[in-house]
Amino acid sequence: MGQDYLSFVKLETKRFLWFIGLTFTLILAFQYFELPYGNVLVNLFYSSKIPVSGDRTDQIAQPPSNSEISNNMTNLNKPNSTDGDALEMANITKTSEEKKTATSFGFALKPQLESNKTSEFYESDKVPVEDDSKKSYNGSVTEQAGGFDHSIYNVTMGSNNSTNSPGEEKEPSSSAQNTESSYTNPLSLSSAMQPKYSTVADLINITSGLSIDSESNISSVGKENREKKDENFKPLQNDVNAQGKNSPIISSKNSRMSIPEVTSISEMNKLMLQSHASYRSMRPLWSSAVDQEPLQARSEIENAPIVKDDPNLYAPLYHNFSLFKRSYELMEQTLKVYVYREGAKPVLHSPFLTGIYASEGWFMKLMEANTKFVTQDPNKAHLFYLPFSSRMLEEALYVKNSHSHKNLIEYLNNYVGMIGGKYPFWNRTGGADHFLVACHDWAPAETRERMSNCIKALCNADIKEGFVFGKDVSLPETFVINSRSPTKDLGGFRVSRRANLAFFAGSMHGYVRPILLEHWENKDPDMKIFGKLPKSKGNKDYIHYMKSSKYCICARGYEVNSPRVVEAIFYECVPVIISDNFVPPFFEVLNWESFAVFMLERDIPNLKSILLSIPTKTYLRMQMRIKKVQRHFLWHVNPVKYDVFHMILHSVWYNRVFSINAA
């Protein structure tokens, strides 16, 4: 009897285990063929983690659901941020077919000088050498996702601020109702519904990547303009599909985020926060005493005491004022930079101080002459500066009409090889504690090989050209006319004298500007949209338009960046940035949505209606903030605290502090 019972138990146990195994197999098979993120176990037991989306080159695009779209974030201020302005939203119902387009806001443009001319209006002398046909005129995320009601969209712009620093100008007030908005993402929640995140980890847990077919919604106008482009005027060829250490895929041990074909400024904010939590540079091959100082600084920045105001700064301009203030203080107290002396002029140690690429020259000049941050002992340095000029590299070595820059890349590779052979510091970190400052359009392609691990401060801060959040820095492109007085003509007319709603003038570079002129040139008296203006002494006509317009259009050219972004700030005109995937300068700390308008390239036909939908109170507040943020974009013969020189250095310092990998 006992023997039979034992046999029965064994048989039933085998059947039970077989049933469990079969069930588990079916579950795995089901999730493999059906579930969108590929791993049922992750979905069941690891719900707080970001779904793995794979590399951009081989992943299958998964359109977001309506619920995912509606939960897209627009404001990323942490609780200790002192921007008391809660972002206000306005749901604007569009009744006409033209107004059915959902709006969100993106970014800027760029030129290329070959000669020593200093005027932006010599843009025709640029030497682009890349096939622009790869660049698509994309539709919005919502269009490609399908099923979303385009007749209603949210626009976000700036934020109310209830606190003012001592002696600071009060926010402009108005009797108008609180219907202002923060121009960024058409799919963002109202401020009352937006979730709040107390830590970076909280934000990361809700972040997911989007992947969009770049060719699914190409404008016939944009496509035609690209096809007509002269072969002699193409930007430098670069492998936008190359995936390497400089890939725009932000990854860590447990997560990876892919970059959508068009990345809104809201999504960039997410990527920035995620990168500072997950991105780490190469671990040093051997330890150094100076490595502990940035690690200690990171701890102090992360635990910065809450600061609500400051007599010298205006808190609402920053994502997190407390963190910025503490980080800047620690930079002043701690940072030491070693500047390599090696290298021959004119490519190295030869600052060029005028024109649209002047940023790299001014930084080089002021950095090499600095005594506060520069150390003569490389063993005491936290950062190492590679003092070459991308503008002078092109001027000295580019063979006109060759459409090749292999010799420019080879020159830089040989320079790095020489530095690595003479000093141990490059090899210790793989160049991760080295940085460069380059404003020429070609700099991303020229530095993609041996300089891929460096911190790159680039004017051409293009996500699609490998800009890495958490490592790279968006360099302001400052058009300097007078090197002896770089702040000459600073400022603009008071608001009552700004009669023009919007202004743009420039050469027809790239595919965006022809579309802008097609829709708005000579079409509306409020919209001063021109091609290249006739020459005037000191560009007086151009400057007058900047000073007398409410909004200045910053439309991309061949590349995403444009000197107009800083020019608008210089002349106190609210910038309207039309350039998809452009990362605006000092993005690590500045809350650009509080003082600038961002538009997708595809929304150009709705430009005027978008600008008119901005309430007067919101415009006045943004224009006032332009005056306050202006100090961060000015060059001075002798550097001044918080000026553009210090802000560039701070962005490099900040990214190094948050990416350093302890030995």
Annotation keywords:
single chain; 663 residues; 20 helices; 8% strand; Exostosin GT47 domain-containing protein; golgi apparatus; glycosyltransferase; Exostosin_GT47; Exostosin
In terms of DSSP E residues, the strand content is: 5-15%
Q: Regions with pLDDT < 50 over 5+ consecutive residues?
A: 33-127, 129-234, 236-256
Number of helices: 20
Count every beta strand, where a strand is a DSSP E run of 2 or more residues.
Answer: 14
Largest sheet: 5 strands, parallel
CA-based gyration radius: 26 Å
The best one-word shape is globular
Structural class: alpha/beta
Mean pLDDT: 73
Keywords: Glycosyltransferase, Golgi apparatus, Membrane, Signal-anchor, Transferase, Transmembrane, Transmembrane helix
Membrane topology: Single-pass type II membrane protein
GO molecular function, one term: glycosyltransferase activity
Pfam family, one: Exostosin_GT47
Describe the fold and architecture.
- Keywords: Glycosyltransferase, Golgi apparatus, Membrane, Signal-anchor, Transferase, Transmembrane, Transmembrane helix.
- Belongs to the glycosyltransferase 47 family.
- It is found in: Golgi apparatus membrane.
- The chain has 663 residues and is an alpha/beta fold.
- 31% of the residues lie in helices and 8% in strands.
- The chain is built from 20 helices and 14 strands.
- The strands form 4 sheets. A 5-stranded parallel beta sheet has the order 5-6-7-8-9. Strands 11-10-12-13-14 form a 5-stranded parallel beta sheet, sandwiched between helices.
- Helix 15 links the parallel strand 10 and strand 11.
- The N and C termini lie far apart (68 Å).
- About 33% of the residues have low confidence.
